[in-house]
Amino acid sequence: MTTDTRSAPRDRGTAALVRTASATALLGLAAALLGALTAGSAAAYGALVGTVLVVAVFGFGTFTVNAVAALLPAASLLVALLTYTLQVVAMALAFVALSGSGLLDETIDRAWLGGTVIAGTLGWMVVQVVLSTSRRIPIYDLPEHRPAGAASTSAEGWDR
pLDDT per residue over 40-81, tens digit each? Predict the structure, then answer.
């Protein structure tokens, strides 16, 4: 006698991505409000730009890794490592572009931008780890349920 199991659709990580991005955005909005109250509008703009950078860069990276893991699981580690490298390069290019634009220290506070990127990155990682470790991801997929009288096409039918 076997236990009847239910096969739920595999979680593709979309819910975790949305929850992580939402938590990071809330953290960034709180930083922008704190910056506006303590240091003025440049600090608030710096916190908002930092939040957008973190959510956009890490959100795109997480989405990409989840999509590849769903389509080609064997390549997911390679894509994750390449995506991490791309995220570091994208952040560096964003900071170079902001420095070259002349917006830093006039319109956008450099310290609040950097602080929000650091805090947002740490917040993103903490929420991502908590959500990833609490997801129930099976190690293997269970075979589809067959009726008791159905003919077997697997190796178990050879012993008859």
Answer: 999 999 999 999 999 999 999 999 999 998 899 899 899 999
> Following DSSP, what letter does each residue of 72-95 receive, concatenated?
-GGGHHHHHHHHHHHHHHHHHHHH
- Residue 149, domain member (yes or no): no
For 38, the domain range is 14-136
User: pTM for this structure?
Assistant: 0.77
- The C-alpha angle 132, 138, 142, rounded to 5 degrees, equals 160
**Residue 43: CB partners within 8 Å, gap ≥ 6?**
35, 36, 109, 111, 112
The pair of three-digit structure tokens given for residue 24, joined into one six-digit string: 């990071």
How many domains does one find in the chain? 1
